[in-house]
Design brief:
Order of helices and strands: HEEEHEHEEEHEHHEEEHEHEEEHEEE
Number of helices: 9
Strand order of the largest sheet: 4-3-2-1-5-6-7
Strand content: 35-45%
CATH architecture of the largest domain: 2-Layer Sandwich
Structural class: alpha+beta
Distance between the termini: 69 Å
Number of strands: 18
Largest sheet: 7 strands, antiparallel
Length: 456
């Protein structure tokens, strides 16, 4: 192996060279006796700058590349011995050393009859361009100017804004190739850009902090820096002079950002790993109704300009559009090839997670949801890790706003909300129409009919 990889520039032009290098590495692994092998090669670069109190806080350039290699050796019919090695040194000598290390480690691992590549017939045969490549031609000086404009707009919004944690402008580009010994070679390229501002309002023990950010594949998708700063200011100002919420059982409305976390607990519970380890509050739940019958979750991997669109998963398996929840009923698990074999099932093309999950939305905006809940808690921040993935018991610190007569009455903090996720999912009363677009898990605010709120 004599090929030398060019310096990374995180552009689609690198894909052909990465793909050729991947094929050479696979051939070298097979020549060392590996029965199966797979690898990923990636290159990326980025710029991140932070301005605080109108001055430069940090400037960071990143330039990364890496190899992750896995080899499988057949152990006389008892299964495959698996070993992995990784390296950021993509010189010929570094690549040879990584291959040698992976093959050497495999001699000491236990054979596993479930190990190995995904089935060859499941490999993606068409790889589409989902319009995810939008580099931002911006240097550090220009990025800092945007950060300063963002923070200044926030700090100037109100005299009660007493301090700042800064405004950060990020821009990144990456290309990646996945290949395996089935002959599959897939490539992807993508960009991601963001502006975030974090402000502090009030004084002494009455200080509050909040932030806002905008994120997109293209710089044209971002809100203006000034809009981000003003939104951060509005959010932190509305949190001043919080009170304690009443204690009791009340409806709880999760903001769209917080609702994503609820769906994250669902995804963990229906993952193949949680299922075969029997560490899930939704163990064996396929075919069971776990949400109201009007609720659905659909995975859409092929959305143009989707934040997580891909023709294939982390094992090269073709992704397909399908329902995770339909009519409130769990349709399937999230399986890679290993967990599928452990469960006697078939991979769902979810090695590496979900691709663009979309919740069914109702007709109501946030004011209508507040009117519908009447009296209860609107949660805009969650703290702590009080979630038991085996039992579904849920208890977390929260902050947000108390709602009376369908209107926000006052901010609240230092409260705890508790319930059980399985019961909470069934108690879902509405999903709002206003989606937070800054994630590949897209949902509106979610109203849970009853939870325990511990406040005053």
């Amino acid at each position: 192996m004599t090929q030398t990889l060019a310096k990374p520039d995180a552009s689609p032009a690198q894909i052909a060279q990465l793909s050729e290098l991947a094929r050479d590495l696979l051939a070298s692994a097979r020549a060392r006796g590996a029965d199966q092998c797979e690898l990923s090669l990636s290159q990326s670069r980025g710029l991140s700058v932070t301005a605080r109190m109108g001055a430069v806080e940090t400037v960071e350039y990143t330039r990364d590349r890496g190899l992750s290699l896995t080899v499988y050796f057949n152990d006389r019919g008892r299964g495959l011995r698996k070993a992995s090695a990784s390296s950021a040194d993509l010189s010929p000598a570094g690549l040879e050393a990584t291959l040698d290390q992976a093959c050497a480690i495999a001699r000491y691992t236990e054979a596993d009859p479930m190990a190995g590549l995904a089935d060859a017939q499941r490999m993606a045969t068409q790889i589409a361009d989902f319009d995810r490549w939008h580099p931002w031609d911006i240097d550090a000086d220009a990025a800092l100017a945007l950060g300063i404009a963002c923070e200044t707009a926030g700090r100037d919004a109100d005299a009660r804004i007493s301090n700042s944690e800064g405004a950060t402008v990020d821009s990144g580009e990456s290309v990646a190739v996945y290949a395996n010994s089935h002959g599959f070679v897939g490539s992807e390229c993508g960009t991601s850009h963001s502006i975030v501002c974090s402000l502090i309002a009030g004084t002494g023990e009455g200080m509050q902090r909040d932030d806002w950010y905008t994120l997109g594949l293209s710089p044209n998708d971002l809100e203006s820096p000034e809009a981000v700063g003003r939104q951060a200011a509005e959010r932190v100002l509305r949190r001043l002079d919080p009170r304690r919420a009443p204690t009791g059982t009340f409806p709880v409305l999760f903001s769209a950002e917080m609702a994503r976390g609820l769906l994250g607990h669902l995804l963990g519970a229906v993952s193949g790993g949680a299922q075969y380890r029997e560490a899930s509050f939704l163990l064996g739940a396929v075919g069971q109704r776990i949400f109201p019958d009007w609720f659905a979750l659909r995975e859409r991997p092929h959305v143009v300009r989707g934040l997580r669109s891909s023709s294939y998963d982390g094992e090269g398996v073709a992704t397909v559009e399908s329902n995770l929840i339909l009519g409130g009923t769990l349709q399937r698990y999230l399986l890679d090839s290993y967990s599928a074999r452990k469960l006697g099932l078939t991979s769902t093309g979810n090695a590496g997670g979900v691709f663009n999950l979309e919740a069914s939305l109702g007709p109501d905006d946030l004011p209508a949801l507040l009117r519908g809940m009447g009296r209860g808690l609107y949660v805009t921040e969650l703290m702590g890790q009080g979630v038991n993935s085996v039992t579904g018991d849920y208890s977390r610190g929260a902050a947000g706003f108390w709602v009376e007569n369908g209107q926000i009455a006052y901010p609240v903090d230092e409260i705890t909300i508790a319930g059980n996720l399985r019961q909470m999912f069934l108690a879902l009363e509405a999903v709002g129409c206003e989606v937070d677009p800054r994630s590949h898990v897209r949902t509106g605010p979610m109203l849970i009919g009853a939870m325990t709120v511990a406040g005053s």
